[in-house]
Design goal:
This protein is mainly beta. 0% of the residues lie in helices and 35% in strands. It contains no helices and 25 strands.
């Protein structure tokens, strides 16, 4: 009994469950909660879904009227009124080549749709082919597009496109010879931790007077099908895709971003962030890498996350081994406690008592507060604690207070950000 080449394709986006999600290609039908979009469960028959070799038990035919040369794509929902942008190409050692014409025959039913593709002419013996489904042009009757990577943004190329690879049988009826897969469908990777650099070398010690860097490289296939490492697209590396933030305040650190694509450099394939001013010594920062860092084929650094954060702490020494005595670190709140009528706000260090008052700490309800400031040992360190209470003498429980960024430490560093807490 002959078998056909069959795809059971997970096609379309799941329903939007929250209106707060930012989405493209929204359809007025999405407001219909009774509508079920085609599910995303994966089942592929007779092919390896990773896009490599056809199942050894199936020989793909060459004659246009031979059912073993037909391709069946099964959809979980009725696709009538939608569209499928599907193409078949010859595949050579140089990659995707000329398109091969296939006719389309639809069968729509209550529980789904079936698309039958038949070659318009006989296929060649012992040849490699690629079936490509373009996500941007594939959607159901409700306008939902393919979302292969599951990031809730459908129709992105190449993220949501599908590539399936198959080989026709030889003239003697035996399985055809598969050639190496070389199409770049692999994402870039981060291949180092955060390092510091003087512009020539990298260091594991994060000197506060140096730049920071991290190695990001692309993975792709060579002509033999082996995975190799190479450069990412340096035009996607910039101040919008690479940011450094203060860990405590969330404020962005101003600076410039470059990517080193010099094979002879020890910084080859490193993303380099140069702050406009030196980093603060012994201070914690966030290096944020966005998904829009891509390789030359358009594959994103992160398939589902908009960005990934890497936390690092600078050394208390510069590259000469000298320490800086000046305190650059802003104060921040480390704890809140409630004790009867008092609410206690613990800071990370001693603060300037003169900066505590109604202008910097207040109840959001407008209730007047009283303030007392003192120093205590907290986790083995001398810090300031602010006692706040209500002027009406009632218990502080349930009172929401706001602490502005105008509070300073003894070196004059501003807290910077506003904090809110309900006791």
């Amino acid at each position: 009994m002959r078998r056909k080449l069959v795809f059971l394709l997970p096609v379309l986006l799941l329903l939007v469950l929250s209106v707060s999600c930012a989405r493209k290609d929204l359809s007025p039908y999405e407001a219909d909660t009774n509508h079920d979009a085609a599910d995303m469960s994966t089942a592929v028959l007779n092919l390896d879904v990773t896009g490599r070799l056809i199942d050894d038990n199936v020989a793909v035919g060459t004659e246009k009227d031979d059912p073993t040369s037909w391709i069946t794509i099964m959809f979980s929902n009725n696709m009538e009124g939608g569209n499928v942008d599907v193409h078949v190409y010859k595949y050579t050692k140089s990659g995707i080549d000329d398109e091969v014409e296939f006719t389309k025959e639809w069968d729509h039913g209550s529980f789904g749709s079936v698309l039958l593709l038949k070659p318009a002419d006989d296929l060649d013996y012992n040849k490699n082919y690629v079936l490509k489904i373009n996500a941007s042009g594939t959607f159901d009757r409700y306008g939902k597009k393919l979302d292969k990577d599951g990031d809730e943004v459908g129709g992105e190329t190449p993220d949501d496109d599908y590539l399936f690879y198959f080989v026709t049988r030889k003239s003697d009826g035996s399985d055809g010879d598969a050639i190496p897969w070389i199409e770049d469908t692999l994402t870039p990777v981060v291949s180092s931790g955060v390092r510091s650099t003087d512009g020539s070398n990298t260091f594991t010690t994060l000197y506060f007077d140096y730049r920071i860097c991290m190695k990001i490289e692309d993975r792709t296939y060579d002509t033999t099908g082996a995975i190799i490492d190479t450069f990412i697209d340096d035009e996607t590396v910039n101040e919008n895709t690479v940011k450094v933030l203060d860990y405590y305040t969330g404020e962005e650190v101003s600076g410039s971003v470059t990517y080193n694509a010099d094979n002879s450099s020890s910084l080859n394939r490193y993303v380099i962030f140069k702050p406009d001013d030196d980093f603060q010594p012994d201070h914690r920062y966030i290096l944020r890498l966005y998904a829009d860092i891509k390789d030359e084929a358009g594959n994103k650094l992160w398939e589902t996350d908009p960005y990934i954060d890497y936390i690092f702490t600078t050394s208390d020494q510069d590259h000469n081994g000298d320490t800086l005595e000046i305190d650059f670190r802003p104060p921040y709140i480390v704890d809140y406690q409630r004790d009867g009528v008092y609410g206690k706000i613990y800071f990370s260090e001693p603060i300037d008592h003169n900066t505590v008052g109604p202008a910097t700490i207040y109840a959001t309800s407008g209730m007047q507060l009283t303030y007392q400031v003192g120093e205590v040992m907290y986790n083995g360190k001398l810090v300031s604690v602010v006692f706040v209470s209500r002027v009406d003498g009632n218990n502080i429980a349930g009172t929401t207070v706001r602490i502005t960024g105008a509070i300073k430490d003894l070196a004059g560093n501003l807290k910077g950000s506003t904090s809110t807490h309900t006791f």
